[in-house]
Specification:
Radius of gyration of chain B: 26 Å
CATH superfamily of the largest domain in chain B: NADH-ubiquinone oxidoreductase 51kDa subunit
Low-confidence stretches of chain B: none
Strand content of chain A: 15-25%
Largest interface: A-B, 36 and 31 residues
Oligomer: heterodimer
Shape of chain B: globular
Helix content of chain B: 25-40%
Low-confidence stretches of chain A: 774-785, 1068-1075
Radius of gyration of chain A: 34 Å
Shape of chain A: globular
Number of domains of chain B: 5
Structural class of chain B: alpha/beta
Helix content of chain A: 25-40%
Strand order of the largest sheet of chain B: 12-11-15-13-14
CATH architecture of one domain in chain A: 3-Layer(aba) Sandwich
Number of helices of chain A: 35
Number of strands of chain A: 42
Number of strands of chain B: 19
CATH architecture of the largest domain in chain B: 3-Layer(aba) Sandwich
CATH topology of one domain in chain A: Dimethylsulfoxide Reductase, domain 2
Chain lengths: ~1100, ~600
């Protein structure tokens, strides 16, 4: 026993004595004791890596500087952590790291102001600073920069210029931000067992990549998102939700899409779920998720076709109404029917509470026996049917923890890495400690590539063969152990069956496997054998019973050292089954259908749609309680909109038979209500006398009632006793039909009958892509060959000249003829695009083209970046706005930042032509942001650069540059600035200090029509204490910078920030569909 | 005729070095010549591995006369056969000539290159046929294994090693006895033996030539190790770039197995041992032991931090002993002659001998094995025959890209681990590069940093990024754009990389930079302050000119200039246009009259 004892010891960190457990590293001991040691590459569950070198410490008696993450803690070891020399080295190493990560924001002089002003992250394409980085709030580099007090970085930024990788669904990769901590690689290879990514190349060119640098869809990637969640920088980010800041409302709850029951943190903003991230503290998933839980939840929940209002059919149309109206309607209608004419059908996605109330409602109110559960309920029925018979209502224990401790894992008809990826993690862990993994497939459904590498044996059977195999296994096993210890009452009968059983197959491979399995089973002691059985796949009843029964026999023979975990694809199938079958015999859905056909059942109250609508024809009155629009909708007489598990509180029963409580994460959408509440209110409406029985304050109260009444939910039931167990006597007299099974299971994941595939754009793309096995080539061709209507606006070139800034040259002779410095245009890429105001930078009257510089800064500009030479732009309107007055002023200062650099160019050119002395001031994050330098040299007398990190010219923002110019020049006659609002505000405020020098700015507000009608571009000037309203599109865009009411301008510009970011998530504009419908009508 | 009859053996060197100089054709021609001269009965031709004197290949030794013929061409063989083999007259023309005196030296042992050597590891190299196990057995091969299996307990082997004071020959210099002891102490049932033949230093070829010339000595050493620590499986990890070594190892392994020296119940004992040959995939970092093991396991060759040391958790997580192949080759002689004998060689700090691949601007480049403690001066001026063209010695780079350079003032330093470490360099695996006055030390440092930077596995920050920053600065300096602050930064980053890198590659990568800054700071300053390259190497800082007195106007330079920078009519003075010249140096090396010279940039 002494081996198992946890040995404790003590070590000293910076003169502080702390305790450690034997086997821990210095870092782990320090973390436990609350001592911070910086690190970027440490992952709790994995072998230490020692790559980032930030956790170096000094250890007495050890050479050099060992890393805390790799050095085991030893008794009375003396460690120096907060040491001057150590901190110096850490800082230097960290600076080296930052020399290849866009770092200018970390050392920017305006950092504090910027953080305060820019509450929302800008949606840039390439990320070149914290203010454009979606992972700003979760960035570990920022934490360490603060800890080490990094104020200046001695190196110039080396930007790798790797292309952005956006081909994949769900996440994007920008390896220019990658610091090569290797966390994603290790988590993918060692923990998840997918090996979709790894390091490639050597030295400075080392990079993370998939095989042959293909998009992840072509690799082993399962889109579980673990790499995205572990990434300490913004290199990997969730595509659809990245721009929603993490810090908003966060609620921990349980995911209800399958019966594993992972813990997730649901983040919401303005009443919408924006992101779901796996909960790190949850003991089941430990911070990991799967593609559905991690990436599909928010889109599924926010779908546009959600049912929101209770409705009643009037004149063949469903009219929204209020709840009481609906209840009365139902009551009046239902009272006209006999109880046996009404059927109540549950959904396997309901909570335990709702299912219980449904059972109660059916029995007490409707008094009907026609209660059933939809969506492949036969399997759960068979499972409990057999289990009740042979375990005498006792249930063997199940635990996920057993999987990772197991010596033997049998996967039966299960593609677990796709259907239940979290359990696959447990298997990977078991495999590491030497477990044998055996896959028995039915009907030649081969395991996919990703499971194959983990399997020790894989055999394909027909249905009959697998039963034969399992019975023969029991037989051989019994022969080895001689006599069972079970006091089973039908042991003799079982023995008789076994002795008469003759195994037909003599496949050598199979015979070997028998010996192997039996060898492992007989040696099982502390560790266990686990059988994982996918029960969602459709089989005939008879087969399932035999399969489950023969497996249970193995459990009994092994004295419960083997356990069986049934897997379902819906969150609460077992829970719903147990609740609705409480004190009643469930009818199967087939029986219900038969009764409908026989006109015995005339009223249906559905909690989930019928896939086959044919049967609904015979129904006289249909009540549909659902979350999504479906083909049952039109047939329904009453619609009762209900909630998803994110909008209500309740509990699920997971595959371990644990009661898991889930929490309400957002307010209910529209007028929806939880199922139990609808049923209770309906019951009370039905009959006043019921109010006592159906008055629950909270789901908690219902759960307590369930626990007090239904023994299944009482923990006593789960203790088993060998003596009470019986053997299952298989009956193998029937041949089984070999029907088709769907090998691609992700598509069969549904919630309340609605396929997640239908609602989540990226999942649909992923599955379709994989299914059709398009090569990348094909899909690209498809995109390119899209028809384009010819317009006068032909694209001559469109290229990224510096990170994120694009130069677009487009033919527009008429506009070029009239353009003046300071004008802008409004551009629409295609007829459904946003109208985009862009400043003109240059034009050629003779050749008839315009030059426009734009930054990728949102959905619409992102669309623009895909333009190629020869494409046509749908429309360009212009020139718009007032021009800049060109006169001889004397000395003029023109300042630009970001896209503004290009915007000041035509003004500078014109001012120079009429004989002004032109001083150009250019601001950038880093020298790599600067462009048009040569052009400016030709048309200016002096150029001053200022960069945030000092990589070119002055170090600092525009104010530093202005101060420099004003100190140097005797007199400045006029200033003009173009850049982001913050830059223009900053510049105007700075020139104010030097007196009343005319300072103008070009304001880019939100614009729609550009003619002064819509009023979106409204802004306020304060002149002599009076507020004057102006419209940027017609009165501007040039205004006196000293008069602009900046706060208002900034807040107006950020008005639609949330919706703009939402676009990335659910880009399916309702307006577009309407337009299409219009066109069809015409 | 009969009284002239002497049975002779011709040892023809077929190492990679000589092979590349057409030793294969020499070999074939020799066979024909012997046949034509009817000498088949008197002369036996024997293929051997590298004989060490690579500068003078292709070569052969006529035994028992002990005469070495060098720099042979196929047509020379007739004369040797006619005069020497038939008439016992040594052909002076093909003998080695002392560069100092110009005299020919007849006997191989009289040549200073050989006379100063004490071959222990290389004792069979150039003498036996590496493709014949019987040859190895005939010189006492596998006797040590027999001795160990019959007379030694594992502890006694280790005791013998302890007495010998053998230190690892891979560069680290860790006590072999201790390493084996750690592995022996581990109770695990499965253990592994790995021989590290992943020799990646530029200019080093000790391991390759040993594997090519005497593969069985390594196999025997591994077996003794396996017996001692209790392993039954071994890996021989060799670079894929060494096809000949791999070929000969394959033959050797097959022959050893056939003769019962490998496999089960070796020599009738209950000792079983198998060796698997693994080819490296060309990563320098795989010479690092943990990276090498990752590579064997099929992973990307990336080092991991130690502890755990391989002796506790190595290959597949099992205790593993990993040594350089030269260390294994040292074992059989130690067992046969005793640890005391080995310990009597060398110095207090290090016993035995060191195998050096001597290259660079030296007259006798090749492989030498000398006792520890030999001075650098002796190595260069005596064994090495001095600097090519009698130029001035500038420095010697020891330990490859992980080592440092040692300047002239330390020429009398004895070669052993401690002395080299004191000078800021390392012994390394034994690749020594001699540099003369025409070498730019800044460019040299840049070359080595570029190498280590390209070969970094990319795992740890300082090595991946730090070396790149150093390379950036050095590139700036050789271009003449450096500042004094750059030099300070360079030293600073070098120290960070040295102190914080994960594995040996990063920890030693800055050595060439640090030692060149230490000993040749003036050269750095010349590049930075005066924008001059004193050695006239760095392209941006030099110009090519034509000496008006020497130019004959032959036009050879003009024809060969790729950018047409040279003007001038035939038989008239030529001139180089500095605006067009790209400083490729073709004209400089092609001019027959040495009329083209370099000088520092005027600007």
């Amino acid at each position: 026993m002494s081996e198992n004892k946890i040995e404790k010891g003590k070590l000293i960190i910076d003169d502080k004595e702390i305790e450690f457990t034997k086997g821990q590293t210095i870092l782990e001991a320090a973390n436990e004791a609350g001592i911070y040691i910086p690190t970027l590459c440490y992952i709790e569950d994995l072998e230490s890596y020692g790559g980032c070198r930030l956790c170096i410490v000094k250890v007495e008696g050890m050479k050099a500087y060992p890393t805390a993450c790799t050095t085991p803690a030893l008794e009375m070891m003396k460690v120096k952590n907060d040491d001057k020399e150590i901190q110096m080295y850490r800082k230097e190493v960290f600076e080296l790291l930052l020399s290849e990560h866009p770092h200018s924001c970390l050392i920017c002089s305006k950092k504090e102001n910027c953080e305060k002003m820019r509450k929302n992250v800008d949606k840039f394409g390439r990320i070149f600073g914290c203010f454009t980085c979606a992972s700003k709030s979760s960035c570990e580099l920022r934490v360490i920069a603060d800890y080490l007090g990094v104020e200046d970085i001695s190196y110039e930024l080396e930007y790798h210029k790797y292309p952005l990788k956006r081909d994949d669904p769900f996440f994007e990769k920008d390896y220019n931000l990658c610091i090569l901590c290797g966390k994603c690689v290790r988590i993918c290879n060692e923990l998840r067992g997918y090996s979709a990514i790894n390091f490639v190349n050597r030295g400075h060119k080392t990079q993370i990549s998939t095989e042959f640098d293909f998009p992840s869809v072509n690799s082993n990637c399962q889109f579980c998102g673990s790499c995205v969640d572990i990434c300490p920088t913004g290199a990997l980010s969730s595509k659809n939700t990245k721009w929603n800041e993490n810090s908003k409302n966060r609620q921990t709850s349980i995911c209800g899409f399958c019966n594993v029951g992972c813990g997730f943190d649901y983040l919401s903003n303005q009443g919408t779920i924006v992101e779901s991230t796996p909960n790190k503290r949850n003991i089941i998933n430990k911070g990991h998720g799967c593609v559905i839980g991690r990436f599909c939840t928010s889109q599924f929940n926010n779908g546009r076709d959600r049912l929101k209002y209770p409705s009643i059919k009037k004149n063949r149309e469903l009219i929204p109404t209020d709840w009481n109206d609906v209840y009365s309607q139902i009551r009046d209608k239902l009272k006209k029917y006999n109880p046996e004419e009404i059927a109540l059908i549950a959904s396997s996605n309901m909570s335990n509470e709702s299912a219980y109330v449904l059972n109660k409602f059916g029995k007490q109110i409707l008094k009907t026996e026609n209660i059933s559960i939809i969506s492949n309920s036969e399997s759960v029925k068979s499972y409990y049917g057999v289990s009740n018979k042979i375990f005498n209502n006792y249930l063997p224990l199940r635990s996920f923890y057993d999987i990772e401790q197991a010596n033997l894992i049998l996967l039966i008809n299960t593609n677990i890495q796709i259907s239940h990826p979290i359990l696959f993690n447990y298997i990977v862990k078991a495999k590491k400690s030497g477990a044998k993994i055996i896959s028995l497939n039915i009907n030649n459904i081969q395991s996919p590539k990703i499971t194959k590498h983990i399997l020790d044996y894989e055999i394909n059977f027909s249905r009959e063969e697998i039963l034969q195999f399992l019975i023969e296994l029991s037989k051989r096993y019994l022969q080895i152990i001689g006599q069972t210890k079970s006091g089973s009452s039908n042991y003799e009968e079982f023995l008789n069956f076994i002795n008469n059983f003759k195994y037909i197959d003599n496949n050598e491979e199979v015979i070997k496997l028998f010996d192997k399995i039996i060898e492992i089973i007989t040696n099982l002691e502390k560790n266990k054998g686990i059988i994982l059985l996918d029960l969602e796949k459709k089989h005939s009843n008879n087969f399932l019973e035999n399969l489950i029964g023969t497996l249970f026999n193995l459990l009994t023979l092994s004295e419960n050292k083997i356990s069986l975990i049934p897997l379902f694809y819906s969150g609460n199938k077992e829970g719903v089954f147990q609740n609705i079958s409480y004190n009643t015999t469930l009818k199967s859905i087939e029986e219900i259908k038969k009764d409908i056909k026989d006109k015995k059942i005339k009223v249906l109250y559905l909690m989930e749609r019928f896939e086959d609508t044919e049967i609904l024809k015979d129904i006289e009155f249909l009540i549909l309680q659902d979350i999504y629009l479906s083909n049952n909708y039109d047939k329904a007489d009453i619609i009762l909109p209900t909630c998803t598990f994110l909008e209500e509180t309740g509990s699920f029963l997971n595959a371990e038979l644990k009661i898991q409580k889930f929490q309400k994460c957002i307010d209910q959408i529209g007028h929806t209500k939880p199922d139990w509440q609808i049923l209770c209110e309906l019951a009370k409406n039905y009959d006043e006398n019921n109010s006592k029985e159906f008055s629950y304050e909270s789901p908690e109260e219902i759960l307590n009632e369930i626990k007090s009444k239904n023994p299944f939910f009482n923990h006593k039931l789960k203790e088993y006793n060998l003596d009470n167990q019986k053997f299952f006597i298989p009956y193998l007299n029937k041949s089984y039909s070999e029907d088709e099974l769907d090998p691609f299971m992700l598509k069969s994941f549904k919630f309340r009958g609605e396929s997640i595939y239908n609602q989540v754009k990226d999942l649909k793309e992923l599955i379709d892509y994989k299914k059709t096995k398009y090569t990348i080539k094909n899909s690209k061709k498809k995109l390119d060959s899209q028809k384009q209507s010819i317009t006068p606006f032909k694209v001559l070139s469109n290229s990224e000249i510096v990170p994120n800034t694009y130069e677009l040259i487009v033919e527009a002779p008429l506009i070029a003829k009239k353009a003046k410095p300071g004008n802008f245009i409004i551009l629409m890429k295609n007829k459904k695009s946003e109208r985009l105001p862009l400043t003109l930078s240059d034009w050629d009257i003779n050749k008839g083209f315009l030059k426009i510089y734009y930054q990728e800064k949102g959905f619409s500009t992102r669309e623009l970046t895909s333009l190629k030479k020869g494409n046509y732009i749908f429309s360009i309107v212009g020139p718009l706005g007032k021009e800049y007055p060109i006169e001889k002023y004397g000395t003029v200062l023109l300042g630009g930042g970001c896209y503004g650099n290009a915007a000041i160019y035509p003004i500078a050119k014109a001012l120079k032509e009429v004989g002004n002395r032109v001083i150009i001031l250019i601001e950038g994050k880093n020298q790599m942001d600067l462009y048009l330098e040569e052009e400016f040299k030709k048309i200016s007398d002096e150029i001053i650069y200022c960069t945030s990190d000092g990589s070119k010219g002055l170090k600092g923002k525009v104010d530093v540059g202005i101060n420099y110019v004003f100190k140097k020049e005797k007199h400045i006659d006029r200033c003009h600035f173009i850049g982001c609002n913050y830059m223009m505000m900053d510049a105007s405020n700075t020139t104010k200090i030097y007196g009343a020098i005319p300072t103008t700015v070009s304001l880019s507000t939100i614009m729609i029509d550009g003619t002064g009608m819509c009023g979106c571009c409204r802004l306020t000037l304060i002149k002599n204490g009076k507020e004057i309203t102006k419209f940027a599109c017609v009165d501007g865009p040039i205004f006196n910078g000293h008069l602009v009411k900046w706060d208002e301008l900034v807040s107006r510009c950020n008005q639609y920030d949330f919706s703009e970011k939402q676009i990335f998530q659910t880009h399916s504009c309702r307006l577009n569909t309407l337009i299409e419908e219009f066109q069809k009508d015409e | 005729m009969d009284n002239n009859f002497i049975k002779r053996t011709i040892l023809i060197c077929r190492g990679s070095g000589c092979n590349s100089m057409n030793a294969g054709i020499i070999h074939e021609t020799l066979k024909k010549v012997i046949e034509e001269h009817n000498l088949l009965n008197q002369v036996e031709i024997k293929l051997t591995g590298c004989q060490g004197f690579c500068q003078y290949g292709p070569q052969l030794v006529v035994q028992p006369d002990n005469v070495l013929y060098v720099k042979l061409k196929p047509k020379d063989l007739n004369e040797i056969a006619e005069k020497h083999l038939k008439n016992n007259k040594i052909v002076k023309e093909f003998l080695y000539k002392d560069p100092k005196t110009g005299e020919s030296i007849e006997k191989k042992d009289m040549i200073p290159f050989y006379s100063e050597q004490i071959p222990i590891i290389r004792k069979n190299c150039g003498i036996i046929n590496p493709e014949e196990i019987d040859d190895y057995i005939s010189v006492g091969g596998y006797d040590a294994l027999k001795k160990v299996l019959n007379n030694y307990k594992p502890n006694e082997v280790i005791k013998e090693l302890e007495t010998s004071r053998l230190r690892g020959r891979g560069g680290g210099g860790f006590s072999t006895a201790m390493k084996w002891q750690f592995c022996l102490n581990n109770p695990s049932e499965i253990k592994y033996v790995i021989a590290n033949g992943d020799e990646g230093d530029p200019g080093a070829f000790m391991d390759r030539s040993l594997l090519e010339a005497d593969p069985h000595s390594v196999i025997e050493g591994m077996e003794i190790c396996a017996y001692t620590i209790g392993a039954s499986y071994g890996y021989l990890y060799v670079r894929a770039e060494y096809p000949l070594a791999i070929e000969r190892l394959k033959i050797a392994l097959a022959q050893a197995e056939e003769k019962g020296f490998l496999g089960e119940n070796i020599l009738g004992s209950d000792f079983n041992f198998k060796i698997e040959l693994k080819k490296g995939a060309g990563a320098f970092v795989c010479g690092e032991e943990t990276a090498l093991m990752a590579s064997i396991q099929g992973k990307r060759g990336m080092p991991r931090p130690r502890p755990p040391y391989p002796a506790n958790s190595g290959l597949w997580g099992k205790p593993t002993n990993i040594n350089n192949i030269k260390t294994y080759a040292s074992i059989p002689p130690i067992i046969l002659n005793g640890g005391k004998w080995f310990s009597s060689l060398g110095t207090k700090d290090a016993s035995g001998t060191i195998v050096i691949a001597l290259t660079g601007k030296i007259n006798n480049s090749g492989l030498v094995e000398i006792p520890m403690g030999t001075t650098i001066r002796n190595l260069i001026y005596n064994i090495g025959g001095g600097i090519i063209n009698n130029k001035k010695f500038k420095a010697i780079q020891t330990g490859g890209p992980s080592g440092g350079c040692i300047p002239e003032q330390f020429l009398d330093t004895p070669l052993d681990y401690q002395h080299l470490t004191d000078l800021g360099s390392i012994m390394g695996s034994g690749g020594f590069i001699v540099l003369d006055e025409d070498t730019c030390m800044v460019e040299l440092a840049r070359y080595f940093i570029k190498f280590t930077q390209n070969e970094s596995c990319g795992k740890c920050t300082p090595c991946r990024i730090g070396t790149k920053r150093m390379l950036d600065i050095l590139t700036k300096i050789v271009k003449g754009e450096g500042t004094i602050k750059d030099l300070e930064d360079l030293e600073k980053i070098a120290n960070i990389v040295k102190n914080t890198s994960l594995c040996g590659l990063g920890q030693t990568a800055p050595n060439p930079v640090l030692t060149t800054i230490k000993y040749f700071r003036n050269e750095y300053e010349a590049h930075i302050l005066n924008r001059k390259c004193p050695a006239l190497v760095c392209e941006n800082l030099i110009e090519y000119h034509i000496d008006q007195d020497l130019c004959t106007g032959c036009g050879l330079c003009k024809i060969n200039c790729a950018v047409e920078a040279i003007e001038g009519e035939k038989k008239h003075l030529h001139n180089i246009s500095q605006e067009i010249c790209i400083k490729c140096g073709v004209c400089f090396s092609i001019c027959s009259y040495k009329a083209i010279y370099k000088k520092t940039n005027e600007n």
